[in-house]
């Protein structure tokens, strides 16, 4: 009976032991190393670094949270620390680079920089010239040539677990230098253009969707009248805001070519003089064309400009108002305008002088602008056409009907273009195409040079 009880008791003890082995044992935290352990010894090279003259390096090590990583490295074996002078880390260091290292988001770069100064082995100096050219591994993972480190105080601190050598300047690994260059480049820190406040639709009380970006070379979104500068009696036009004015076209260069063409064509020197010298319209035309606008200029010849009185040009802003009425914010050629008036009979074109419009109709096989005594015929077609600026020569100065009233002294008497009669009638030759036309006098060439010089001064 006793043997049986003893047998049952042994079986129960074995089952209990097996059950305890199957249960998971709670994990105990690793025991901290004692104070006398090599990694935290008071005679450690890390303690000596914190108490040495290299205070700037010690401060950066603490800011970079590298004390634990260095203790682990010392626990695995001896280390060599290359410690730069305090001046090399403070006064001699580039302020932008120091600011980059101390930014919280660049903590990895600061750690790589400091670990680049720690070698996981004891290196005694001085070394031979052949050994100095060899590369040594660093805790940063990038090799280092001792020849690149200008050692000024070899064996400045010697401890059983490592040695500290004083060096002249800071050593920057390639990865940190590339990160700093990327941060400093304009692509990484480009300024954000200011944007306007969000607009609310008063009908739906919801935010309006931003307009899609305009493609390259697209027509301007604003009408040409909103892009024009104020009159001469008002303050100058404000500087364009961010994103305004695509400037895909060389407007000033095109206006310069257009004025030079007027001078070489002959008979339009007065108009060129007013555009360049008497007003600043040439510069404004160049700005409008640069921003993507197109213009058609109805150019009165010198005979028509000579019929203007002094009173009409002496009033402030009068030359600008007269020429604005001769500028159409469209690109029209002689053929397109003639086809339009042949098809519709009468066409009204907007001008840069709001709210006045100029009326065109077909008359005697040509295009006639205006009505009554203030009308003008298009008799010099396509003097200049480049896709952005079109110049059509007319034989009279146009004035708005509300102002001339049919009694303006500038209005020339009604004139009719020569009608084509018979099949043998010869078409009218364009100005400048006559083979018997005399050469330009030297005075006209000199006059053109003066006008072009004035336009160059305005554009600059």
Key terms:
460 residues; alpha+beta; FAS1 domain; 2 domains; 7-stranded mixed β-sheet; 4-stranded mixed β-sheet; 20 helices; 15% strand
Fold topology:
Elements: H1 2-22, H2 45-50, H3 55-63, H4 67-76, E1 79-84, H5 86-89, H6 95-102, H7 107-115, E2 118-119, H8 129-132, E3 135-136, E4 144-145, E5 151-159, E6 162-167, H9 174-184, H10 186-189, E7 200-201, E8 206-207, H11 224-227, H12 251-265, H13 269-278, H14 281-290, E9 295-300, H15 302-306, H16 310-314, H17 318-324, E10 327-328, H18 334-344, E11 346-350, E12 357-363, E13 366-369, E14 376-385, E15 389-394, H19 401-404, H20 442-459
Parallel strand pairs: 1-6, 9-15
Antiparallel strand pairs: 1-2, 3-4, 5-6, 7-8, 9-10, 11-12, 12-13, 13-14, 14-15
Helix pairs in contact: 12-14, 12-20, 13-20
Outline the structure in words.
The chain is an alpha+beta fold. The chain folds into two domains: about 40-190, FAS1 domain (Roll), CATH 2.30.180.10; about 245-415 and about 440-460, FAS1 domain, CATH 2.30.180.10. It is built from 20 helices and 15 strands. The strands form four sheets. Strands 10-9-15-14-13-12-11 form a seven-stranded mixed beta sheet. The longest helix is centred in the N-terminal third of the chain and has 21 residues, at about 1-20. May be a cell surface adhesion protein. Belongs to the fasciclin-like AGP family.
């Amino acid at each position: 009976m006793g043997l049986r009880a003893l047998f049952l008791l042994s079986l129960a003890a074995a089952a209990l032991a097996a059950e305890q082995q199957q249960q998971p044992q709670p994990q105990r935290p690793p025991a901290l190393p004692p104070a006398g352990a090599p990694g935290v010894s008071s005679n450690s090279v890390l303690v000596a670094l914190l108490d040495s003259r290299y205070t700037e390096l010690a401060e950066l090590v603490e800011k970079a949270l590298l004390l634990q990583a260095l203790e682990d490295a010392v626990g695995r074996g001896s280390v060599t620390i290359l410690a730069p002078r305090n001046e090399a880390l403070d006064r001699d260091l580039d302020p932008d680079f120091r600011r980059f290292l101390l930014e919280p988001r660049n903590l990895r770069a600061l750690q790589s920089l400091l670990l680049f100064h720690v070698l996981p082995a004891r290196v005694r100096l001085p070394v031979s010239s052949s050994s100095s050219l060899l590369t040594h591994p660093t805790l940063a993972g990038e090799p280092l040539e001792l020849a690149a480190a200008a050692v000024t105080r070899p064996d400045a601190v010697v401890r059983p677990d490592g040695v500290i050598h004083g060096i002249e300047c800071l050593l920057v690994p390639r990865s940190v230098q590339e990160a700093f260059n990327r941060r400093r480049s304009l692509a990484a820190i480009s300024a954000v253009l200011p944007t306007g406040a969000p607009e609310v639709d008063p009908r739906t009380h919801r935010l309006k969707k931003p307009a899609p970006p305009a493609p390259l070379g697209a027509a301007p979104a604003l009408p040409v009248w909103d892009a024009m500068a104020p009159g001469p009696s008002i303050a100058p036009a404000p500087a364009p805001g961010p994103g305004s004015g695509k400037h895909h076209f060389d407007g000033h260069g095109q206006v310069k070519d257009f004025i030079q063409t007027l001078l070489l064509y002959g008979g339009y020197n007065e108009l060129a003089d007013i555009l360049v010298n008497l007003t600043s319209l040439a510069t404004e035309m160049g700005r409008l064309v640069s921003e993507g606008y197109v213009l058609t200029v109805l150019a009165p010849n010198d005979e028509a400009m000579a019929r203007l009185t002094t009173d009409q040009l002496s009033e402030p802003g009068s030359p600008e108002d007269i020429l604005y009425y001769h500028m159409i914010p469209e690109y029209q050629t002689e053929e397109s305008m003639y086809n339009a008036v042949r098809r519709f009979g009468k066409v009204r074109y907007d001008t840069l002088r709001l709210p006045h419009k100029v009326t065109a109709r077909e008359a005697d096989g040509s295009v006639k602008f205006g009505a009554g005594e203030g009308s003008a015929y298009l008799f010099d077609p396509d003097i200049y056409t480049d896709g952005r600026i079109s110049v059509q020569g007319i034989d009279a100065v146009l004035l708005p009907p509300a102002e001339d009233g049919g009694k303006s002294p500038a209005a020339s008497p009604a004139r009719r273009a020569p009608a084509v009669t018979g099949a043998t009638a010869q078409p009218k030759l364009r100005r400048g195409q006559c083979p018997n036309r005399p050469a330009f006098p030297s005075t006209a060439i000199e006059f053109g040079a003066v006008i072009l010089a004035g336009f160059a001064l305005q554009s600059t």
